[in-house]
Each structure stands twice: as C-alpha cells, then as structure tokens.
Specification:
By secondary structure, the chain is α/β, with parallel strands linked by helices. The protein is built from 14 helices and eleven strands.
Length: 361
C-alpha cells in the first residue's frame, strides 16, 4: 500500500495539525515531540472545549461507524484553518503480534473522501504520504495530509522509516530526523511510565501535555483503586466518556488504566484463552482485565466500551464471564454512544463505588 508523495511548500509556516482522536491518546507525546524536532509548529484540538458537531453531508460518510470515528471528521475539520498540513498516519499495527481496528488503516481515505467528495487517487510508488484539498471548505490553498504507513509487523526499522518519510517531506535532513525520532521516543517512554499518575493528579487538559510535570506535593490517599479498561480513545477522551476519570476521582478513587499492566503480562493472560485476540487495544484491555481478576491489586473493574464497536462486542462477554468466576471483584460494563447524560453516568458510578465500599464496612 503506497500513496502519492508530496512535500509541504517551502513558503509555508510548517504548522502541523494533529486531531485529538483515536491513537492520539497513545502516541501524542511522540508525534508532537518528533514534529517539533523537525522545526514544525504542532497544533491540536483544545481539550477544554467541546468539539463542534457537523450535521451536513460529511456526517453521512461515518454515520454508521462508531462514535470515535465520527469525532475524527469533526475534530479534523475544526483544525482546518489552523495548519498547513494534517498528520494522520495510516495505522495498521503498532505491535508485532496484532493489528489495530481495520478502520484505522482507512483514516486518511475517510478524511480525503469527506473533504473532496471523490474516491481516493490511484496509488503510485511512494513513501506513505498523500495530499488532500480543502479549498472548498476553507477558502485556502490545499494543505497536505501526512499519512505515513505504520505497520509494526514489518519490524521496528519499518516503523522508524515510516516517520522518517514525514521528515523528508518536510525538508529535514536525515541526521535531524533521526535525532528528533530518538528524542521523541524518550519523551514517549517517560510519558508512558507516568501515565497512571498523570491521569490521577493532573487535569484532563494537562494530563496529556508532556511538558507539564507531575505535581511535587504528594496526593491524598484515595479510598479505592479501580481499573478503568477499554480502548485509549474511549477511556481518556473526557468529552466522549463525560469526564469519567474526574468523576471517579471525586469519589476518592484512584484510576488504574489498561496501560498500567505491562504488555507481556497482558499477552500472557490472553494466551491462555482458546483463541487468539488480534486487535491490539482490545487485546490489551482484555489481558489487563484477566490479569487484575487473577492477581488482584484493585478493588473493582470498569470496562468502557463503544456502541457499534465490533471488537468490544466480542470481548465484553469474555470479561463478563471471567468476572463472574471472580465474585470478590466488583465489575461494571458501561457502553457509550456519544450521549450527554452526565447525571445517569454519575448515578451508576456512585452505585458501583458503594458496592466496592461494602466489603470494607
């Protein structure tokens, strides 16, 4: 799979927009640091403001998809006037032993079709970059859609080379690109190690800003530790999940995300099942659930799923069956579909925390 290779004009300001959707919630520190290391100004959606929802013909392209895919177009269009280019990788796999949701691979095409109203251009020999015209929507000349093909099944070098093609399109030399890539990887590694603390100690707007350090003042000891499992673009998107992490924190809960379980341990738990789980984020969530149910260390489990998500439709029953066999660990499954009933969500969380509290009385 290859796309047309294009470069950003040298007269541009090299402002790159990265919509706050999908795998942004896992790779944002790396993407931001890497592009800034190439001399770009990186912009994303304001995490403190709700996303303007479109209700025109563009919505029909993804109306049958899950809600995160619908947010893809809304948040991409919200950045249309903010940058010369949009960074939307064609993500196939980020780990050697699995793949992402197949829709991820089509993200650049979804955006292109939505904005151009045409089918994708004929693939030609290239390095994973493609262009998209936004003139009819913004009145400006066409920015560039940077979509490197990321497939970790081809090896680490292939993933690195995918990002180096972006540096080449931006006019960066190889030495600068490699230094930026190494620095971005170090920033991402440090961020991953701090993720659990960041979501519990910082605001939603600050938690994913790698430039904001953790507070030096030690936090008060929460009453409970509850695992919040699911795809990262569900568990960490406060607008989609109605700020569930902040709500749990207000109930004196320390939130333990899927990512707190090392990948090797999650994989080990999943391998004991009769069949393999190929979807990476679903495999991580399922493996974390099985790990917590067997090893403990938490007072309850909340699994956030997305309406219309085929992966969740399969995995929820597996987690539910495993939770039933571990009656000492309270379990709550919440399915979200973009509704805004915060009162109903808070009522369910309060009831669940009350169930968790009972054994301590």
């Amino acid at each position: 799979m290859t796309d047309t290779v294009l470069s950003i004009p040298s007269t541009s300001s090299n402002a790159i927009a990265i919509p706050r959707v999908l795998w942004w919630f896992r790779e944002w520190p790396f993407w931001k640091t890497f592009l800034e290391g190439l001399g770009c100004r990186v912009v994303t959606n304001d995490p403190t403001r709700p996303t303007p929802r479109r209700r025109d013909r563009i919505c029909t392209i993804v109306e049958e998809s899950c809600y995160p895919m619908q947010l893809l177009l809304d948040r991409t269009l919200a950045l249309a006037n903010a940058a010369d280019a949009v960074f939307l990788p064609r993500l196939i796999s980020v780990r050697a032993n699995g793949i992402l949701c197949p829709r991820f691979a089509g993200v650049p095409d979804i955006v292109r079709i939505a904005l151009e109203g045409t089918t994708a251009p004929r693939p030609t020999m290239g390095q994973g970059l493609t262009a998209v015209g936004w003139t009819r929507h913004t009145g400006r000349t066409s920015p560039t859609l940077l979509s490197p093909i990321v497939d970790a099944r081809e090896g680490r070098r292939a993933v690195r080379n995918a990002y180096l093609t972006v540096a080449e399109a931006l006019g960066a030399d190889q030495r600068t690109a490699r230094i930026a890539c190494r620095h971005a990887a170090a920033v991402q590694q440090r961020f991953d190690a701090e993720l659990e603390q960041r979501i519990n100690l910082l605001s939603p707007a600050d938690a994913f800003n790698p430039q904001i350090p953790l507070p030096e003042t030690p936090p008060s000891t929460p009453d409970f530790r509850i695992a919040l499992l699911g795809h990262p673009y569900i568990t960490f998107d406060w607008e989609f999940n109605l700020g569930i992490i902040a709500k749990l924190r207000s109930l004196s809960v320390w939130v333990v995300p899927t990512e707190s379980v090392p990948s090797k341990r999650a994989d080990s738990a999943v391998r004991k099942l009769d069949k393999n789980v190929y979807w990476i984020s679903g495999r991580e969530a399922l493996g974390s659930a099985l790990f917590f149910l067997k090893r403990g260390g938490i007072d309850g489990i909340i699994y956030l799923s997305c309406f219309k998500c085929g992966v969740d439709g399969l995995l929820l029953d597996v987690v539910k069956s495993a939770a039933r066999r571990q009656t000492n660990v309270p379990y709550l499954a919440l399915t979200l579909d973009g509704h805004d009933n915060e009162v109903g969500l808070m009522t369910r969380l309060e009831a669940f925390v009350d169930i968790v509290r009972r054994p301590n009385k």
